[in-house]
Amino acid sequence: xALELGKPIVEFALSGVDGKTYSPADFADKPVLVVAFWCNxxxxxxxxxDRTIALAKEYADRVAFVAINAxxxxxxxxxxxxNMQRRAKEKDYPFPYLHDExxxxxxAYGATRTPEFFVFDSNRVLRYHGRLDDNWExxxxxxxxxxxxxxxxxxxxxxxxxxxxxxxxxxxKWK
Amino acid sequence: xxAVRAQLLYYPDCPSHERAxxxxxxxxxxxxxxxxxxxxxxxxxxxxxxxxxxGSPTIRINGVEVDPQPHLPYRLTxxxxxxxxxxxxxxxxxxxxxxVIHQVKQEEEPSHGSGAG
Lengths: 175, 117
Fold this sequence. Notes:
Chain A is of the alpha+beta class. Chain A has helices at residues 43-58, 81-91, 104-109, 146-155, and strands at 14-16, 21-22, 32-38, 63-69, 97-99, 113-114, 116-120, 126-130, 170-171. Chain A is globular, with a radius of gyration of 15 Å.
């Protein structure tokens, strides 16, 4: 069961690919925080990777993004910490990429897919949960920009027009 | 009916298999191949191993895999296809599908003017 809308953020302290440890408090200077469950191997993450990077860059002054990979790296070696470091460097991720090796954070959020987005407002209350947009296959044919719309609404102290969508992607690979 | 055999193996957790089936149908039609597509559902790691399944969707034409990736282990997940333009996608492109179908079709067709005799 995913974290419910209106609930406070679930705390975490996870290692990033840059060697630092991150928790939600590290993003306190931004009014909105996006927690994205992520990984290396999933084609849906790859399909959404450039779009997510672009969005994070566009909103960098007001919105913090953080990506968390909880996949079992034994069965899915592309998702190892070393490969996370490699991928973040290759794509020049503009956000911390964190390793949830114990999978406890993913379980606490009730994350089931990669990619899956949880958006928290300035009080760090969950206000949007789900997918980035309505077309993983073709960015040119996107009609609904769920995540962007949620960010714009929250930055204007409004309710996101859509607060929940079904995440689309690979299942989180549990141990 | 053609001698070309098409298989689509899928893991139901991945959302792409219905679209993949459409793409295979369209590619077969575009190549003038009239054949049924055998659809195989993969739900366990044992089945993935037995069917040499590296991810969903796996598409084989007469046993020839579209975008083979022999370095990957057999497992239950979604797979990535690299399109001609370099884009990474959960689905093969129509060109990738048609190339394999075309290749298999040529191999199936009896050769002409063998010069035997």
